[in-house]
């Protein structure tokens, strides 16, 4: 299939792996920032292809994982209301709050719907004038333009029965938090391709310089990721610390201006809590005051909900690559994908969930043999 | 408090709560050996075919009705009555919308049950059909569904010999629900079951995957998603006959160890079930699994994996290596098996797990899903 198979070619992959092996002289720890990259790595078995000295650490870029428990409880409180049609991206439905998940709420009569585009909410709102349509606007910079567009269109069309529960987060402050940690192990980053397609990568240049760390903006197909790893290793081996663009077929330094404009008009930067990490200054968006009438937190009076995270969970350290899932006393016992205690067990691409699904039964050496890549 | 202490405290609280529950249920019902089904209500995931469905069946039904025929947990029960071997099965159909490209709820209802019988090596003979109709359903639509059922039954060579109709209030159903029950005769010495896979066996797949599931998705209004796709809905008994003929001609009809139609939950779920029941591992070549470009494109866009998407006219056969090539050749000569492919093999390592070699040369685990496959946000 065109535009896909070219980036999944086994022969080219083998060459890239060989080149990484040739360039690399010592162990390196590289973090892929984006949840989509983690997914691709696990789905294609890329981590098993790499030379043993290259350690990939799954970063904080899974929007479902990092949405704080308290925000999920707010979402559930709203979704339980009889007058509400609660719309969400699909993978948010199974994320448990303090009391069940959105599927449970649906089974008890809540009107919970999966949408593929936030704009679908406009249609739902028009078709149900006696209901209040609420969209759970989560994600990174990638989903921000479409989510912003929903608020923008709702205001322009004077739709009174639509609102957004906003829990938007930004990548650069998260990278800064990781790099500022005294126990940080990450030496290079695969930067988030889709995020940068929207906002560009200018914001990453000061980070690369200040922390002397290579950041390679990378795509999502297997060859993109191997190429990104190779570019990062080359920088590390030669002592460079630059922002490079592996994903140049999609994006340039400036990103997508019209998308940035709509974000700018609708959202403003604020402090945000991250599940497993805590509060990070200026790390997310909220609706600007002109759009406060569309802010579900105001409309449904859920600001008082303030849920504490489990104290046992070490997902914050796992997200930063400091600890492995097996280091956690709750892993696989008190904490499982069915009953997650923290961020990294919540979504299938979280590090703990991936270890739980794939690492429980298998000896690493066996997998490498099966893959024929050893 | 240290983490270990906190955990211990949590566990104690849970144990205490569980103990209280046990005591209450004992007081009310006497000592009950049934496993505890810890979902206060049914969620959609219980119908997904994944882990939740397995748990529901195990804890609510299997535990209560346990008997040798049921315990085989195949798509059909195989029974011996008066010296004859019979296959017996039932299936309910609740698809929305009821009409879709490539078929409708009527064709599904006939073919689904015919296929469940055929997978047991049976010649499907007779069907029963029960209709739950929603008040307000257009009679013309019901007639159209009935016409489809007649055509599908004629094509599969089965007769509809008994049935039932009920009408429920508007809003209590979704136009029409159909349950079909089928009976067929197993007239060869087959031994087909999900526990029959052996290391070294080859895994054959009859054609492209995901067509039905993606077609249904694309017709759902809220997705606003268009593609030129058709459901693969078809009766597989003809194809099965040819495969069994081929095995018989090779001298051992039992060399076909297992046949399954990968409906809800897709190929991944079906293979996990076989691997689990047979206590074997499986290694797939992901690259050779046939998927139409339109299905792949849709799955890429929606963040779905075609291995978990439903099929209604495809089958998987686990076959002894000696006759695998012959059977595959024979499948390819049949109209419903033209794209048949050997997608992998059964291995002794990693029992109960399905692994796949990926296009780039990595390996991944193809796990059973917990519930419904959900579109990913990024």
Polypeptide structure, described:
- Chain A has 374 residues and is of the alpha/beta class.
- Chain A has three domains: 5-15 and 25-64 and 171-245, 3-Layer(aba) Sandwich (Rossmann fold); 68-163 and 256-264 and 283-299, HypD, alpha/beta domain 2 (Rossmann fold), CATH 3.40.50; 315-360, no CATH class.
- Chain A is built from 17 helices and eleven strands.
- In chain A, strands 4-3-5-6-11-10 form a six-stranded mixed β-sheet, with helices on both faces. In chain A, strands 2-1-7-8-9 form a five-stranded parallel β-sheet.
- In chain A, helix 1 (10-23) runs parallel beside helix 11.
- The radius of gyration of chain A is 21 Å and the shape is globular.
- Mean pLDDT of chain A is 90; it is low at 363-374.
- Chain B has 378 residues and is an alpha+beta fold.
- Chain B has two domains: 74-185, 2-Layer Sandwich (60s Ribosomal Protein L30, Chain: A), CATH 3.30.1330; 194-365, PurM-like C-terminal domain (Phosphoribosyl-aminoimidazole Synthetase, Chain A, domain 2).
- In chain B, 36% of the residues lie in helices and 22% in strands.
- Chain B has ten helices and 14 strands.
- Chain B has helices spanning 3-29, 51-65, 68-71, 105-118, 139-156, 211-219, 237-249, 266-278, 293-302, 321-333; strands at 77-81, 84-93, 99-100, 103-104, 123-134, 159-168, 176-185, 202-205, 256-260, 281-285, 316-319, 341-347, 354-357, 363-365.
- In chain B, the strands form three sheets. Chain B has a seven-stranded mixed β-sheet. A five-stranded mixed β-sheet of chain B has the order 1-2-7-5-6, covered by helices on one side.
- In chain B, strand 1 and strand 2 form a beta hairpin.
- In chain B, helix 4 (105-118) packs parallel to helix 5 and helix 7 packs across helix 10.
- The longest helix of chain B is centred in the N-terminal third of the chain and has 27 residues, at 3-29.
- The radius of gyration of chain B is 22 Å and the shape is globular.
- The two termini of chain B are 38 Å apart.
- In chain B, 47% of the residues are buried.
- Mean pLDDT of chain B is 89; it is low at 17-34.
- The interface between A and B is large, with 68 and 45 residues.
């Amino acid at each position: 299939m065109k535009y896909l198979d070219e980036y999944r070619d086994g022969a080219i992959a083998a060459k890239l792996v060989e080149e990484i092996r040739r360039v690399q002289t010592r162990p390196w720890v590289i973090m892929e920032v984006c949840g989509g990259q983690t997914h691709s790595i696990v789905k294609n078995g890329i981590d098993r292809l790499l030379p043993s000295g290259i350690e990939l650490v799954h970063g904080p870029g899974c929007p479902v994982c990092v949405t704080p428990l308290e925000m999920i409880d707010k979402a559930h409180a709203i979704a339980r209301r009889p007058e509400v049609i609660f719309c969400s991206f699909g993978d948010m439905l199974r994320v448990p709050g303090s009391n069940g998940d959105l599927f449970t709420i649906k089974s008890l009569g809540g009107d919970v719907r999966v949408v593929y585009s936030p704009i679908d909410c406009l249609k739902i709102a028009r078709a149900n004038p006696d209901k209040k349509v609420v969209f759970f606007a989560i994600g990174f910079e990638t989903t921000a333009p479409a989510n912003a567009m929903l608020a923008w269109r709702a205001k322009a069309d004077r739709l009174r029965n639509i609102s957004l529960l906003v829990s938007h987060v930004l990548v650069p402050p998260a990278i800064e938090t990781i790099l500022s940690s005294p126990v940080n192990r990450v030496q290079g980053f695969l930067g988030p391709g889709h995020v940068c397609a929207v906002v560009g990568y200018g914001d990453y240049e000061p980070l690369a310089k200040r922390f002397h760390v290579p950041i390679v903006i990378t795509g999502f197909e297997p060859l993109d990721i191997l190429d990104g790893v190779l570019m990062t290793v080359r920088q590390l081996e030669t002592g460079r610390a630059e922002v490079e663009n592996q994903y140049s077929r999609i994006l340039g330094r400036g990103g997508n201006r019209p998308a940035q404009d709509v974000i700018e008009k609708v959202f403003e930067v604020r402090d945000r809590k991250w599940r497993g990490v805590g509060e990070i200054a200026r790390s997310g968006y909220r609706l600007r005051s002109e759009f406060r009438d569309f802010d579900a937190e105001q409309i449904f009076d859920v600001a008082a909900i303030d849920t504490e995270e489990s104290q046992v969970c070490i997902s914050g350290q796992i997200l930063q690559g400091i600890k492995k899932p097996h280091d956690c006393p709750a892993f696989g016992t008190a904490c499982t994908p069915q009953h997650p205690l923290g961020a990294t067990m919540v979504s299938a691409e979280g590090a703990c969930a991936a270890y739980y699904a794939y690492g429980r039964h298998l000896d690493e050496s066996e997998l490498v043999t099966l893959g024929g890549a050893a | 408090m240290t983490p270990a202490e906190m955990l211990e405290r949590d566990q104690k609280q849970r144990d205490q709560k569980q103990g209280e529950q046990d005591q209450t249920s004992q007081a009310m019902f006497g000592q009950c050996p049934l496993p505890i089904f810890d979902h206060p209500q049914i969620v959609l995931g219980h119908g997904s075919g994944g882990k939740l469905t397995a748990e529901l069946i195990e804890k609510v039904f299997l535990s209560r009705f346990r008997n040798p025929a049921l315990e085989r947990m195949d798509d059909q029960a195989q029974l011996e009555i008066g010296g004859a071997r019979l296959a017996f099965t039932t299936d309910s159909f609740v698809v929305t919308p009821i009409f879709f490209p490539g078929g409708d709820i009527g064709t599904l209802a006939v073919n689904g049950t015919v296929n469940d019988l055929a997978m047991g090596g049976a010649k499907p003979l007779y069907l029963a059909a029960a209709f739950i109709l929603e008040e307000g359903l257009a009679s013309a639509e019901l007639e159209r569904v009935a016409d489809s059922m007649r055509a599908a039954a004629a094509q599969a060579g089965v007769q509809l010999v008994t049935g039932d109709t009920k009408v429920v209030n508007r809003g209590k159903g979704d136009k029409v629900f159909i349950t079909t029950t089928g009976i067929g005769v197993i007239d060869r010495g087959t031994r087909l079951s999900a526990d029959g896979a052996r290391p070294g066996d080859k895994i054959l797949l009859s054609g492209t995957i995901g067509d039905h599931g993606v077609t249904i998705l694309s017709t759902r209004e809220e997705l606003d998603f268009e593609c030129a796709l058709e459901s693969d809905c078809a009766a597989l008994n003809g194809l099965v006959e040819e495969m069994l003929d081929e095995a018989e001609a090779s001298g051992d009809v039992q060399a076909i160890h297992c046949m399954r139609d990968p409906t809800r939950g897709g190929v991944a779920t079906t293979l996990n079930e076989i691997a689990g029941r047979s206590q074997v591992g499986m290694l797939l070549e992901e690259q050779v699994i046939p998927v139409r470009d339109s299905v792949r494109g849709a799955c890429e866009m929606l963040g779905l994996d075609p291995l978990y998407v439903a099929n209604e006219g495809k089958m998987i056969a686990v076959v002894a290596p000696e006759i695998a090539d012959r059977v595959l050749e024979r499948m390819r000569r049949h109209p419903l098996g033209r794209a048949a492919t050997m997608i992998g093999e059964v291995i002794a390592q990693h029992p109960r797990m399905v692994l796949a070699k990926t296009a780039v040369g990595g390996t991944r685990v193809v796990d059973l899903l917990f519930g419904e496959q959900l579109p990913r946000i990024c």
